[in-house]
Amino acid sequence: MCLLVGKPRAADLLKEIGDKPEISVKDFLDLFFDEAAQELGTTNEYAAQPSQELHGESPEVKALKQELEQTKQQLRAAQAKTEEKEQELQRLQKLDTKEQAEANFVEFTCHLLSAECLCLFSAKL
Asked: Which branch of life, at top level (predicted)?
């Protein structure tokens, strides 16, 4: 049930916590499942219990655990991709800075050469 009800709300939750980068994956998932439970009109009673305390888990609990694990994997993959993109951005910014420095050097050199040529031309006159 959480699969049907909770996923549309996940985007809203991500927007809400977007300003809070310090939120942990566990806190996000707890919030996600609490929201889904509220939408279903139930409580997230399994969130507080360690799985070893549950005896004879229902198929719904197993499905929720599987969904939780998939969501964790997706979050880990997204975090890895974000870190990779940030590193690529930093690399490109360094290249851009280096290219700009080289362009400034070439421009400065051209100004010096044109000033020197002007001085030589003036001296010949």
From this structure: Eukaryota
